## 1
Amino acid sequence: MTLYEVNDFSYTYHGKDLPAVKNISFTLDEGEFLLICGSSGSGKSTLLSCMKGLEDRGTSKGEILFLKENIKSCASSARDIGYASQFPEEQTVTDIVWHELAFGAENTGIKQSEIRSRIAEAALFFGIEDLLYRKTDELSGGQKQILSLASLLVLRPRVLILDEPLSQLDPIAAEELTALIGRVNRELGIAVVVAEHRLPGLMSLSDKMFVLDGGVIAAKGVPSDIPKILHEKAHPMLCSMPCTARAAAAADAGEYPLTVKDGKAWYKKYAAEHSLTLPATAAPKSPCEPLCSLKDIYFGYDKTDVLKGLCLDIFKGELLTVSGGNAAGKTTLLSLICGNLKPISGGIRFFEKPRFGLFPQEPSLIFSAESVLEELENTGADEQKISQIIKLCRLGSVLRSHPFDLSGGERQRAALAVLFAKGCDVLLLDEPTKGLDSEYKLLLSDILKRFCLGGGSVVLVSHDVDFCAENADRCALLFGGEITCCCTPEEFFTSNLFYTTDAAKTAQGTADGIFTSEQLIGSVGGNISRKETIPNGLFDFQTAPEPPETAPPKKKPLFRKICTALGGLSAAAVMVLNSGLFPIKIPEEPFFLPYLPLILPVILLLIGIAPKNDLSPPVRKKPRQTAQVVTLLVTAAVVVLTAAILMPLATGRLYYAVALLILVECLIPFFIFLEKKKPSAKDIAAMAVMCAAAIAGRGLFFMLPQFKPTAALVIITAAVFGAQPGFIVGAATMLASNMMFGQGPWTVWQMLAMGLTAFFAGLLFYNRRSKTAMCIYGFFSVLIIYGGIMNISGYLTAQPVFDAGTFFAYIATALPFDIIHATAAAVFILLLSGELVKRLDRIKEKYGLFV
Amino acid sequence: MRGFKKYHPFASAVFLLSVTLITAFLQHPLFTAVSLITASLTAVSLKGIKALKPLLYILPFYLFACVINLLFNNAGVTVLFVLPTGNNATLETLAYSLNSGAAMAALVMWFYCSCEIFTSDKVAYLLGCAAPKLGLLLTMILRFVPLLARRIKQCAHAQRFIGCDVYSGGPVVRVKNAVKVLSTAIAACAEGAARTAVSMKGRGYGIKGVRRTSYTVFRFAAKEAAVTVAVFALTAAIAAGGAFGAAEYGFYPYIFAKTDAAAIILAAAWTLLCVIPLSINLTEKLRISEVKHIDAV
């Protein structure tokens, strides 16, 4: 039975001119295994997400039929098509493994008892019973991928669509996952569609394969024919085929072995008939100057030691690769070298002080500007250098793009470019080849080699054995917390039996010195052409230009200076007076009197500090605030009514009960709104991220105790996302953060207090916003709305009998803390809003959030 | 060991809600004492002797509340001394402050127990029953917090070498850089949220015409039912007794607390309610030690 029929399908993204995929036609039968390969940006991911029916903002031509129904209107696609994107980290939705497994089943409305048995089945099939109660964040990369596969199978799909499932895994985990995918296909008869760069294991499993190039199908057929077709066409994508097939192609052998087993047999036969051109043993690199040496490094978190007595020397101008299993401590090693972490014992000796460049696993963390070009210019490099780097990293076509709009490979190139532009002597790379196609890997290796020739050192941590074999000057293996072997790639890869390249495995026993695919192909008379020309002089460190001095900051007008000074002085005076050091009479009535003396100084201060430029929001189509205003009014009416009827009746502890009732009344409408409105997946994910940011952001400001950005982040979120989502974000943030720092009777109060703070921010700033106004609002809302509500809560909790004297004494003692919180909110809004509002606005527009 | 901690969240929620509410609203000195002692013992049975630490932390806070009360509150008839401000410090106020301090301490201990019992998945489950979307949101927040913390760290590490150092320099520069790191990490994660949304949609979130179910690993068995019924019955009895004035108490103008037969019976019921988790935990511990003993033989 035919599952998929794709007829002449093309797809163009929203706002793009050229189609991402063009004129694609194929069919997929029940139980078939289809493998799609292609360089990065060739349209693999686009095609896969179109096959799931996820792309809706662009324009498409032709059609994709699933079970004879157009995919866009196919009701059964949620159950029948399992889809996993290429990002295992963001793929996970929930915090605990069993919930992650149940997530899909919950969405499709399956009954509790059936979910239970399906989870049990899936867990058994994939052997992850032990993980059921673990936190998803603590799983290794391989376990995460297995979990996402299992969570798809709980839905009992008829086809699995997997986008680069292996790209983030080490060789052992990749083989494990490949085997599992094969089992799903063979034992359960579920059709599988995989897009992947790492082909060898998958090619022998698949029934059909095609190669995408620039959005069109370049070759199509059974996997064993693909290398032949590419070879006959002399297509550049041949370089993505397994090395055995490429070697055979280079020898014009007429057969194209895909596995090491077949390749080994063929190579032996070939060697018996022809003479091999063995690679000249490279002259050992002349000993370079040492750069740094790590001696007896111990490092660990809590109880477990990650590194135990690690010793390693790094030389100038060398490319050192460090391999090892997942969680072996490779990333930790990089952090120790560059000083981001300090060893518990042992020491690192530097022979000269180098400039480091750290390439993180998630390259988007490097970017902070609006376009790739701006990103490069911000580093302070001169124009000539920038243009060389652009050429080198092939960024010409994406210069004007926003860094986050780039594809995975382009993003990595851009991140590398930023590091180069900033200039560094030691480049520390964490999994740089993740998700890269073989073409760009060649380019990357050229870049790195040239960097080393210029005197720079590279320490590269990677699972990619082929890349290490081809480019390393020395290879190290990190195992059990120490470097178990550190030698030239020749020694490293020819002596290893398992942890080695396919080329070495193939040549073992026939030509023992061979360990890279280049050598293997060379040995049968082929050669790999490198067409890239690298501009010279790029990594000439002697002539590296000094970064230009930053322009002096613009002078502040006198008026603002006076405002700052006056505001600061008087605020300090009020704070000192209120601190209780001086016997001042606490005003009894009205209750807001203690806050009043602060208003003027703070306004002065904010006018003085706040930059003038205002944050103009993008033009909105129509303000949708009627519902919000109505909610607000209804809530207010109910609250006033409750207070009016019940407060006179309440005595003693019942005050607290009435207050609690009012509180719950205030919270309910917002949550009813959340439940009824059915927020889309995008909205709920965005809200969850912003809440998590408000909680996790606290840790970053360890240098400022009691001075945290939580309220500021919530207010900014509300200003961008709107009043309703703002309230939810504020309330949920307090709820979740108390889950980590301890629940108490205060939780409900905090939820309401933070929710309202955000709600009014949303009402005020959704359509018009300026930094100054937001700062002033931040200060007063935290002081009065948040502080006020929390003071009432604290007072009522501790003192059941309401009494004006004790109440004002309570407020006066709490005031200094409230002022600190309020100042923190204002300061963080001042600092954060500029960049964050712009970025969140962009994300909101790009993904169409909260419309 | 199963213990009270592993009971269905609904049973634990009913119990904890009941004891905290009664502790908060029925501050008869006898009730307060029972509550404080049983709460502390329950905390110890859950987490060992270090569970008593919170008591140390709240001590200064309530001493302070006591002082404030003495300073500003002049109700009561037995004057201890007269303050320079002209306020009378009375015995009644002191007794009242001590009693409500003990009640607060009991509440803190019950909350400590509930934090220990209510792991995040239980809270998410309970919330999910009442408000499924909020429950899901909470689960997702709990999933994103460690991811964001990791991303922020990675970002701080990487940005350090491109001119944005959080770890050294003056405080102003560090805060400025930290702000930049934070907004970069947030932006990266918000982009990631769009991918999470794709994954959610891919697994059927928000498909039309389907009512989302909510799955849980917790089972509501006979034991849970028994505990729930017991809690409801005892709570109803205490509430009724309290409403009819069987446990009357007061501090102003003079100290007064009923200790007749009805009050004692009510206090016994209250003790019975409070020791439920303690007795479950202790019985199971006893059984385990018996099993070990048999094994050893």
Note: The first helix of chain A runs from residue 44 to 52.
## 2
Amino acid sequence: MAQEAQLPTTPDRGGAGTPLLQAKTLTKHFPLGGGAVVRAVDGVDFAVLKGETLGVVGESGCGKSTTARVVMQLIPQDKGEMLFDGEIVGGRSLTLKEYRRQAQMVFQDSYASLNPRLTIEDSVAFGPTVHGVSKPAAILKARELLTKVGLDPARFAARYPHELSGGQRQRVNIARALALGPRLVILDEAVSALDKSVEAQVLNLLADLREEFGLTYIFISHDLNVVRFISDRVMVMYLGEVVEIGPVDELYDDPRHPYTRALLSAMPSMDPDNRTMEAPLAGDPPNPINPPDGCRFHPRCPHAQTVCAKVKPVLARTGEGAREAACHMEVAGSGHSRAPKLEEAA
Amino acid sequence: MLTYLAKRILYVLPVAFGVSLFCFLLVHIAPGDPLTSVLPPDASQAMQDELRRIYGFDRPLPVQFGLWLMKALQGDLGTSIATGRPVAAEVWRAVGNTLLIAILATIIGFLLGSFFGFVAGYFRGSWLDKMASIVAVLGVSVPHYWLGMVMVIVFSVQLGWLPPGGAGPGGSAAWKWDWEHVSYMILPAITMSVIPMGIVARTVRALVADILNQEFVPALRAKGLMDFGVFKHVVKNAAPTALAVMGLQLGYLLGGSILIETVFSWPGTGFLLGNAIFQRDLPLLQGTILVLAMFFVTLNVLVDIVQGLLDPRVRRR
Amino acid sequence: MSAITSETTPAIVVPPLAKSPGYWAGVWRRFKYDKVAVAAGIVVLLIILMAVFADYIAPADPTRSSMLRRLRPIGTPGYPLGADELGRDMLSRLIHGARLSLFMGVVPVFVAFFLGSIIGVSAGFFGGKFNTITMRTVDVFYAFPSVLLAIALSGALGAGITNSLISLTIVFIPPIARIAESVTTQVRSMDYVEAARASGAGSGTIIRVHVLGNVLGPIFVYATSLISVSMILASGLSFLGLGTKPPTPEWGLMLNTLRTAIYVQPWVAALPGVAIFITSISFNLLSDGLRSAMDVKG
């Protein structure tokens, strides 16, 4: 169908297999007044490959949502930069506005993320009109997308958000995110508020859409089962830092960081043989205001030693494949008694 | 608690500064020269300049403000252009008179308002509630200066029970706490009490309904506590907010009494303001408004502090 | 913009869909069943019509005085509501008085609604230092009881209709700006505003499409609740002689000039107040009805 005023598709510059998004030492601190600072995101490095889904997990308060908002540039980072398909976000060749066309976000609260005074199709059509698409063309596109997310436009397009169920609203939000023809979609707890059966439908829809539109997802959730289902790689965050990152099956089957192990052991498993022997999380819940020195996890870590309280471990390659963990026990010569011996590593 | 106190006071200082700046500028937004009202029409240029210098109107504005503020902080509000007497003395005497009826009015309004509000909230949805709600709407909708006139018509002109206005047989100077004098306070105080009554009634009704809706009230009833126990509980929970509203209302009455005082010729601040306006006595206008506004600001802070003392949750805001 | 490839080839036809009843349809449906509010609305409408068509409705010239017929009681032949201190027909004066009284009560609130919304919405939307400075300034005006502020400003500016309108507008801007600021702050933190920003929309577009539609309703409801106060205050200023000048009929001024007549014709003297009272109650009840129909909290 030849349409006027469509948004141009963006060519893939780096080619398949190269990172779509690279975050370099992203940092976001919130001053609280009185000198206290919330270190919501503290020097986070990661890359999202083209066509993959990167899952992000961690307890509440670990900085996953702030990371999402910084990646979306809804809040500016204090330090660090991001490269999108090799170009600096907000730089000369990739303006913020253009970046925002190529990266989109779906929020957790399906109701709060739709303007109650706009009809569904107007909400979906809003983004394209901002980028210069004519209103009628945007509306037609919106109806097309509503069909794609499983909502019959004849029934839903002219209705208001409060007339829809939570699952239907979240489909609208997905359509809204897709309306700009993005390459990267950030899903911030996008299915967490839905009933289990609806959640499964929306997850399948997300997987289908990824195929159809060649999307890349950053999938943020506290639900480890859901993350395992949809992700290719998983990033584990703790108090504003990345503690482990790796391919989903390796990471779930053989977690390297004690925090990942604890997190996974707390996960309800259907399979009694599949239980890890790690003790569940103990100690104070994480507080990003005054994070401990050294390894931030050490006050709750069953293997903590003197070195953990003094030296901050860095994210380093470990195990097989593209796996990284930030733990002294993984680094030869770190000073931890359970670290691999130096000659072994050499 | 101390940090809460300090925060409140730190917050109010810029507001108080702004209020004084506003009062200072009042004289300068006024059209015409403030001196014209005291000058004879044929005053010579030399005489005009002389007076201008005496009143300080020849200095640049920020300097005038600084000097004025310094003096005001020491209790010197300048000299009335019309009478030549110090403004501060005139204002303080009037404030006393206004406080007298404003406090009386607040007490009456609070008692009646709490009663109506309580009944309405306790028997929510009943005809009593509807009656009380109507009274509350009437209370906030009535032009109180007109109500004052109607009071005079009914109780002074028609029935002849109470005096129609003034501050007593011998004027405000000869005030005594006897019936002959107190009778002059009754009509203005009752009229004025209508303003807080409606608002107190609305607040109390909402509070009582809210408290009765909370889960622990049926629990209290289930525990076999008599209705009196529930009543006591409701009063204990509603009192802090209701008292806060009352405190704020007293502030409004201090500033809002001008129309009622005019109707009853009560020699308070409202009366003083009326005179200041008609004689275009701007220092007097400025001084009166400054004192009233500062009263209001201070009262607000006091209410906040008392509320903070009674209810620790307030402090965290 | 580079993102457009718009060619004006055949216009796109968007097949129309049956629209859901929108928000305002729901408001109207709820309002319709509120008998008190509808009655109040009708009274307000009648008063407005009375003011507009005063020339045709009033039986006599409101300024024609007659020294022989001063202060006649209610029910005098030819003077259904009596005659005032200059022998003018009270009924005609009350009808004509609606014009200025309504005008002076309603206009300041509307102007303040406009200006207060601009101040409050921008303070709420942009936040930060701008918010702090703006709202602290607003707080200074908020520190005066409204009656005192109105009288202070009118007193300093001098008597007259324009000065009264200016004073009352200044009185109502701070409370409206406060409400506007708090509603906007709430809306600004909603995800749909974030989503709009994530679509690359600028502040102007976001305010126009996503903020105003959600904040103007609550601000408007609050503003309508001030009309009753404004009526009372405006008439109060005239009652003090700070508003309009005789012989123009205006309810507050009529109360003032009839004050001395309470010993002769008390009920005639009280009539202008009845008019103010009825108008003020009607606006209050209408505003209450609007508030619950629009489901605005608080």
Note: The first helix of chain B runs from residue 2 to 29.
## 3
Amino acid sequence: MKILAIDTSGLTATVAVCEDDRLVATFSIQYKTTHSQILMPMLEKIKELTNLDLKSIDAIALAAGPGSFTGLRIGTATAKGLCLALNVPLIAVPTMDAMAYNLYGVERLICPMMDARRSQVYTGVYTFVPEKSEDTSLYKYVMKTVLDQKCASIDEIAEYLNEQGKPVTILGDGVPVYLDALEKKLKVPFSVASVSQDRQNAAALCAVAAQYMREGKITEADSFAPEYLRPSQAERTAKENQKDTVAAASGNGNSSENSQGALEKTFGMKIPKVKERVFIRLMKAEDIDVAAAQEKENLGKEAWTLDQLLTASTRDDTIYLVAEKSGKVIGLCGVQNIQGDGEITNVSVAKDMRGEGVGYKMMRQLLERGRGIGIENYTMEVRSQNAAARRLYEKLGFKSDGKRPGFYDNPKDDAEIYWLRKQQ
Amino acid sequence: MIIDKKTEDDGVIMMSIKSGEKETAPDKEKEASGKDHVTILAIESSCDETAAAVVRDGREVLSNIISSQIALHTVYGGVVPEIASRKHVEKVNYCVREALSQANLKLEDIDAIAVTYGPGLVGALLVGVSEAKALSFATGIPLVGVHHIEGHISANYIENKDLKPPFVCLVVSGGHSHLVVVKDYGEYEIIGQTRDDAAGEAFDKVARAIGLGYPGGPKIDKAAKEGNPDAISFPAAKIANAEYDFSFSGLKSAVLNYINIQRMQGDDFNKNDLAASFQKAVVDVLTEHAIRAVKEYGYDKLAIAGGVASNTALRQSLEKACKDNNISFYSPSPVLCTDNAAMIGAAGYYEYMKGVRADLTLNAVPNLPLGDRERRFHGRQSL
């Protein structure tokens, strides 16, 4: 079993090749050159000096984050390219796990920390537990995770370590940056790893990856994304600006659930499922049948036909969302942008799912996403008698702007014209 | 031109662009002799589009896959580099795989891998460059670094099989406004450029100011169709003593001033008229400069390229001016004006044929200059 390992998460670019229990090559450089310029030449050198036949590689191991955003992407894109070309799986090892493995056999607490700026570090806490084999005095160490890798402030991690009350060894590029602060804050005995162990090292990554491989913990490279542990600045700012945006059920969660079955099939292993909840996502072509049937049930003659839905939902100036629970479409809504005014064309929720806030959740997302395609004001018509719907729209900030008398038939009803204007 | 479009759960739109032309029956003799064709796999990730394509002999597009993130960025009123880079990493393998599969080819069938290495957003470029280098390293297929704008210019070769240098090309996009003389394949001379904002940038800013939203180009184009281009008179976007240069920042300020004055006076203005008048000011100066350049340099061909080249008013204006002046006018289909990898494959082909090769130190160069640059990397020729 041959593994090629890449770690470009920090300042050090490091690559290694191991074959079963033999480390064939390891190459680390911490110098001024960028990962983008140094990584591939390092691999090429290893290939040349060890007569490495790339076709003999069984998997690519990658430090899967956290780390420098750009560094992670250089490593990830490189690993993905290699996986695609060599047709091998990816082994994604959390960066902190691989770093902690540098200190194999250390029974103290091990705390890797990478500088994440703004007085924060990417960190985690680990330790090695000895396990004696039955008939000899040979001990093997197993790495245990005490604290999962996370982004934490120096105060937070120091407090955590103090609570543990155990000696700790720290390592990583966060150490020189925060050593003064740690000396003041840490009450537990602590030491700093030696220069031979204190940075990312692909040899340790290889060792962890080999274990992953034996346990079948492999990843499909195409859909893999590194673990940044932090949203982008723009997303942070946007979130702060609009504190109560619909953060819940976005399409992302759903896509991972969809790929679940495929992943399990590919790799023949169980992957824990996320608990059932309502997802709001963009309507897809395969939803149209169900959505049209639901419209028909809810609205009878006024319902849009399948064709109408299909035409409307594939336009550039519309957004159609569906709510999904346990893989079933339970709600639908849509908006069309007319020069900055968004006409809400459809809103419906399956009969047995009403009163659970599905409509509200769906509409909040629709209004939010609509702003993204340039909609400033929203408008819609609703039956005057439909009190539940009117309550929902009023809760969303819509205000009645007038009536169209006798607009609806069966039963005869007025249409209430609702507007949600930008300044309201 | 057929576009297969699919919106994914995360808001990214996957597109596959097909020429719609009937496939020519494979030439049995050529196929048998094997190496008559040069097939390029191209990768592009300079801004908010992850794209991969397979192009044969620089002109024939076998597949053209674009994964557009535009919907993710509209919320922020422009491209957010970190978000773009993150999406590129997620999509890049899908695009490459899909491009190969639609071309019905395997990596082994590819003669060279072409990749955009600049100009663009550095984090975004790095994804394509890293992927391309890894593919090249793992397979031994030669690597060619391509200039993004040279790609845009080369988009003209795809649908205009008869277009050959020399010609003049007007490159207008969100980041660029250049008048370029294409002397030969891969030989470019910049004769005019913007002194400040790019044309597309001015479109975006004006669109935002009048509340049309992002992306500004198509929004203004659409609104302008309903407006009167002569309603408001804006200054020309020219520079004194620099006959081929542009300046759009002054024009943009004039538009913003106009809006402010109207608002202060409590007057309402017609968005459509304003859009039309602004657009006319941009189009007039682009047209005038381009036509004059073709005539003064003694050529008879004008091509346009870049995102703004899909603006209908600009196309019409140039088409008419070219007709009046006996100049042949070339333009890519709108979908080939936006960022795509087929154009990188076209440009990459001509670079490859000249012997240009990149080695594995190839890096992303966010401000890579056009034309006059160190382009020959004497690395591996092939393995």
Note: The two ends of chain A are 64 Å apart (CA to CA).
